[in-house]
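Question thread 4412

I'm putting together a teaching handout and wanted feedback from people who do this every day. The idea is simple: show students a protein as raw sequence, then show them the structure tokens that encode its fold, then repeat with a second protein so they can compare. Below is the first pair exactly as I plan to print it.
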Amino acid sequence: MLVKQVDTSSKLTFRQKAFLGKLVDIYGESHEPVHYSTVAGKLGLSNSSAYDMLRVLEQKSMVGSEYTTPKEVAGPGRASVLFYPTSRAMEFLVRIAGEPSEQEEWENVKAGILESLRKVKTNYKELLKELSVKSPSARTPLAQCAKIVTVLLLSLKEAKHKITDNRSVSAIVKAPVSKLRMSILAGLILGLSLADHKVSHLLGNYRKYTEKYESSLKKLNKEGLVRLHRFTQDVWELLESESGE
């Protein structure tokens, strides 16, 4: 028996829609779940009002929550609840704002990067600068990951590493996909790039980007992870083909 899914997003009040939009803005600054007191402070509300609204939106599948224990507390500590907008919330806000959908953003980002790589071919410095500036602006986790992994791979090229000699990187790129492998890949490329002193000064903000990469990677579902992996393979193959080695 098929159960018809009810679209609760259409039942959001004007106040709930405005609150959700503000939450997305706050979340977009760090791409990390936020404490309800942070939301309350940003919106000029009491902690209890912000908390109650977040729970209402959670019931409508617009907000997700998770519990965390402060790292500085030794042993068992008091857990705090953090909130984040769900992909459903993102799609809903996109729909009412008339912006491109998550799928449209992904297709645009993917096509734009691959086309740029094909045109640039060997001189990647300007493309690297452009992507490193724009990478935080990606709205969805998949597009965010795609931009950052491209920046990291281009930084590896800029560090004058021979693509065909990076067997460890190649092995991860070509291995079956998993979130662990995609996480290791980002760390490995960053480490190799930082080893070149001429390039290390260009990597000032890239550590922040890798944190965003990890955060976005955790939010990808299986389909998104497969798309990211295939995209990474496409970028890697283009860089290999243009290396001339």
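The second pair follows. I'd like the answer to focus on this one:
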Amino acid sequence: MLGGRHRFEFVGKEPLAFWVAVSLLFANTVLMFTPDFVNKYFSKHAPRIFSWYSDRSIAIQFILLALSAGIFIIFRKRVRYIRRG
């Protein structure tokens, strides 16, 4: 299994930027499912911001994933690799 043999963790306290990125990633993941619900029940007049977000939600998701990876690279001196098995 690819992801099961290694683990990365921060030494000490996690940076605030990491928590912000993870929170935004979680919120975006939940919000990605709302366009289907809203379009099903309220399809007549969707606001423009809703349409804009619906078109770009997957791109936002990848940007937030890249931001999370970038935080690990920026704070690489505080990241520890734990080998398992």
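Top answer:
Good format. For the second protein you could add a caption like this: DSSP finds three helices and two strands in the chain. The two ends are 12 Å apart (CA to CA).
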